[in-house]
Please model this.
Amino acid sequence: MRSNSRSSRFTSAAACLVALVTLTGVGNGKALGGRLGEHIDRGPPLPSKHIATLVRGQIVLTYCFQSMPKNPHRRPALLNVGVDNRKDGRPPLTIGWRVVRKCGVIRQRVGPIDPPYVVLLSVSSQTGRTSRVIRVLPSIR
Model:
C-alpha cells in the first residue's frame, strides 16, 4: 500500500539527502552519528616536501610526508613517479615505489626519454585509492 501523505514524502527525501551527503563525502557525515564520508572519500596525502633533481641520467626524488595516517584508505603505500618529456606527447615512464618510511629518496632512470623533463607524482593507498597527480620540474645538477 502506498502512502501519499506529505510527511512521508519529506521523511523519504530527508533520508535520501542524508545518505547522499554521507556517501559522497559532502560535509562530515555527522548526520548519521559518525564521520563516514570524511574518511572514505579522501585519498592518501601527497608528500608535503618533494625535490626532484636530474643527476647523470636519473631523477633523484627526495620526499617527506607530513604524517603517515593509520587509516588504510589514506596511508601511503606506493609513490608513483613518472618521468615525461614536456613536448613529445608520448606516455611517461612511470614506476610505483613502495613507501616504507615517512621520508625517503628515490632514484629513477629516465630511460629513452629526452629532455626537457617533467616529473609526475601521485600516491596510492593500501586499498587502491589514488591522490591527484602533481607536476614537478626537476633541477639539473
